[in-house]
Amino acid sequence: MSVATEDPPWARRLLVTLAILLGIAIFLAPLAAIFTEALRRGLAPALEAIAEPDALAAMRLTLLVAAIAVPVNAIGGVAASWAIAKFDFAGKRLLVTLIELPFAVSPVISGLVYVLIFGAQGWFGGWLREHDIQIIFALPGLVLATTFVTFPFVARTLLPLMQEQGREEEEAAATLGAGGLQTFFRVTLPNVKWALLGGILLCNARAMGEFGAVAVVSGHIRGATNTMPLHVEILYNEYMFVGAFAVASLLALLGLVTLGAKALLEYWTARPMGVEA
Amino acid sequence: MTVEIEAVTRDFGTAATPALRGVSMTLRQGEFVALLGPSGSGKTTLLRILAGLDFPDAGRVLIGGRDVAQVPARARNVGVVFQNYALFRHLTVFENVAFGLRVRPRAKRPDNAEIARRVQELLALVQIPELESRYPEQISGGQRQRVALARALAIEPQLLLLDEPFGALDALVRKEVRRWVRGLHDRLGITSILVTHDQEEAMEMADRVAVMEEGRIVQFDAPHSLLDAPASAFVASFVGDANRLTGSVNGGRLGIEGLGAFDADGLPDGRTDVFVRPDEVRVVPPREGLTPGIVEWSRQADRGRWKILVAVSEHRLEGYAEQPIERGAPCAVELQAMTVFGAQGERVSLSGRLAANSAMPGV
């Protein structure tokens, strides 16, 4: 603390206070505003807006998309980080770069790419229409876009930890007679289980909250292809502020619960984890 | 179990020279062999090839008479103690040791009661029965080393590989553990290979020591032979404790700058490497006819002697004196014997007698 003590106490206090005020202004105030706006006319209208059929459909869809995208990314993320951390192969660096691509590219562009590929005017549009397969403006498109955007979370959480842990334990397992799968399930996976859970939680939070990519491929069909973030936007654009903020509150709550779960996890395991992009 | 290594070559393609360049050696059943060499000499690569964690580019490896070229690590039944132990951090000591038994195919897997009995037996063998429910991060380095050993022994290997297993232990514990591991080896009747860069460790533990240099075995011999008859200047500098000097031979006389000229019959002309063990450097008070020097430091040593570092012109020589001589005081040195490697690598032992007509060098 020798460096810190060179500053006068009032300067330190001022800086800490400023940091806290800034945190409140940037992070907490908007969050509080969402809840206040939702409850402006009391609890009943807010609950009504949430119980409305279109809203319920949006919730179901959001949960369904997350329920598909998150397991896919958990398995894909584990596989990718396992391959990168424990094996040497040609194209390894390329794979690491590819994993970070969704972070680098705007989500809107990610969505547009799928429209370009699977949309009516897209590369496979004609073929898909002939075979009566709907990808864009339907569930498959939403799942694809969400999966793409949220892929890095699990992989980027696991990769640094796996690389730090090295290959020694896997080699020890091999000399003790363990096969590849035994080594993976008895050594590799248990060593990263908490980080994996943390990554899955982050991935889930983002999957439920994703807007940009989903907005492009959704088509905004009420009760059919609207996820919660899209539903919030529609309500807001139609000046139904209570409804918009009520659904937004619910979405924010989901995020807060995720954050709380992750904080608890870190408290239990006493090891900070997070995405290292 | 016998081990035969025949002309094994391994090139990772990442260094200027291959990691192994035609290594051959044969181990007898029950032998304790040390691979000794500086880092980068290929000893760990050789160990990994024996363990099945790496494979040679050329050459053959036979373990117990069986060619293991196609045998992966998990099917070799070779026990390995890794440098940093590589204990499974999420498993207790008990489960670490039980691992090798639990991953066996169902038909060959002992039941839980049998596994418990075997693990407890092994933990008793390595003298840490009380630690079975601890996790690796909760025990000391020495204890981890014992767990690693028990875990490697659980699969009842006929060949045990130890990769610098004592490096992480402090000096006191290390000495004790060395003796204990060697005792265990003798009791179990297994064949063991120890990788180390610590010559004292290799000399103390092994029946035979293979000295490695840049991917080759330069000498494979009993410890006393390495000391008495080093095959090259490299071995002489790496094994034992010696003052290293350079000299040149001219017409049967070996001249060492600042130390004088010595009779060197039979050595061809050219540059030479000269090794003089501290035991063969006698340090005495200044005396006519001996090379003079200045004492840099002195400390009491064994057998009532004083170990002394003497500055003789450009050289620093370690030797022994029968009486204490103060730091900074003038003294004289007498070389009683030296080992010389000639220009073509031939080894000659010389008495350190100065040549009769040698001119005394000034200091």
Key descriptive features of the protein:
heterodimer, A: 277 residues, mainly alpha, 13 helices, disordered C terminus, B: 363 residues, alpha+beta, Rossmann fold, 2 domains, six-stranded mixed β-sheet, six-stranded antiparallel β-sheet, 34% strand
Structure report:
- The complex is a heterodimer of chains A (277) and B (363).
- Chain A has helices at 9-38, 43-51, 53-86, 92-104, 107-118, 125-130, 139-165, 168-175, 180-191, 193-209, 212-218, 228-237, 241-269.
- Chain A is mostly helical.
- Residues 271-277 of chain A have low confidence and may be disordered.
- Chain B is built from eight helices and 21 strands.
- Chain B is an alpha+beta fold and 363 residues long.
- Chain B has helices spanning 43-51, 93-102, 112-125, 141-153, 171-188, 199-205, 223-228, 233-238, and strands spanning 3-10, 20-27, 32-36, 58-63, 66-67, 78-81, 159-163, 191-196, 208-213, 216-221, 243-250, 253-256, 260-263, 270-276, 281-284, 291-300, 306-312, 315-321, 330-335, 337-341, 347-351.
- In chain B, helix 2 (93-102) packs across helix 3.
- Residues 357-363 of chain B have low confidence and may be disordered.
- Chain B has two domains: 3-233, P-loop containing nucleotide triphosphate hydrolases (Rossmann fold, 3-Layer(aba) Sandwich), CATH 3.40.50; 242-351, no CATH class.
- The chains are: A mainly alpha (277), B alpha+beta (363).
- At the A-B interface, helix 8 and helix 9 of A face strand 6 and helix 2 of B.
